[in-house]
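Async update (no meeting this week)

Hi team, since we skipped the sync, here's where things stand on the single-chain job. The sequence we agreed to prioritize is pasted below, unchanged from the tracker. I ran it this morning and attached the output directly underneath so nobody has to dig for it. Comments welcome in thread, and please keep replies under the output.
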Amino acid sequence: MSKPILTEQLSKNGHVPPQYIRPLSERPTLLHVDPSEPSIPLIDFEGFNGPDRPRIIKEIGLACQTDGFFQVKNHGIPKSVIEGMVCVSREFFKLPESERLKSYSDDTAKSTRLSTSFNVKKEKVSNWRDYLRLHCYPLEDFVHEWPSNPPAFKDIVSNYSTSARSLALKLLEAISESLGLDKDCMEKALGKQGQHMGINYYPQCPQPELTYGLPGHTDPNALTVLLQDQVAGLQVLRNGRWVAVNPIPDSFVVNIGDQIQVLSNGRYKSVLHRAVVNNKVERISIPTFYCPSQDAVIAPAEELIDEQHPALYRSFTYGEYYKSFWDLGLHKENCLELFRAF
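Output:
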């Protein structure tokens, strides 16, 4: 394999190389994002296991129905864990290129790999990002594969991924209850479950109006818990317009993925979102993807199907869905249309 070209190598050039330039009709139109548009809901998660549980469940249900996205504060993950995760992620991407490339692979089946753009084997236009992809549940099955440099990487990321899993399971309870289902319904539907993490690095871009960090897409998994550094870049589509989701210190962005749209029989929507870049400062974002196991059979919850609400999606395994998602390579904004029941 020839030496890969990481986006970070190109960030000091005065221009964006041709393979990163989007056709005119597909460019970010950054000036059309209205800064006065209200952002996604912010939900105070404190008291979820106490008297505030009904309020929190109601707010989460409304956010899933109307936005597909929300932010949570007072979630119980210590500030030190959050700051440690962002810090060690930045340290990894500041390592010498030769050290980082020890983790490089363009094989999408590998459970631990550094790569660039999205799917370099299939895409025609590249995205302005490098990323480290980690599988992290069950933790003991994967942690030995992770980078050993920086020296504290494995310990810090293990601690963070365990905390993120705990929060994701509470959020799945809230989403289940908000639909009138048993609190463990969503968790059971995911089978043995899986958890992936992406550490996204978006270098400074000399011409951010020509390219994306990631173009508009929905997430193929069940639930995403996103940790951002304090640099803006995430945008969500609402009523046909892009809305900026600016970082709030010590909070997480949460969005439902395609699998919850299916399990909720379309009541909750997996919403298009994108990452834009800027010419002033680099950005780090760390999504934790909570997933079904590959053999889990996904279908609308039976309790949500009746004569007035027929099943909108056929049953499928998550492995089948995930393969379709990667094969499309973000060329199709939403993979769900391939799995409609009619």
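Quick observations from my side:
The two ends are 44 Å apart (CA to CA).
The chain has nine helices and 14 strands.
Reply here if anything looks off.
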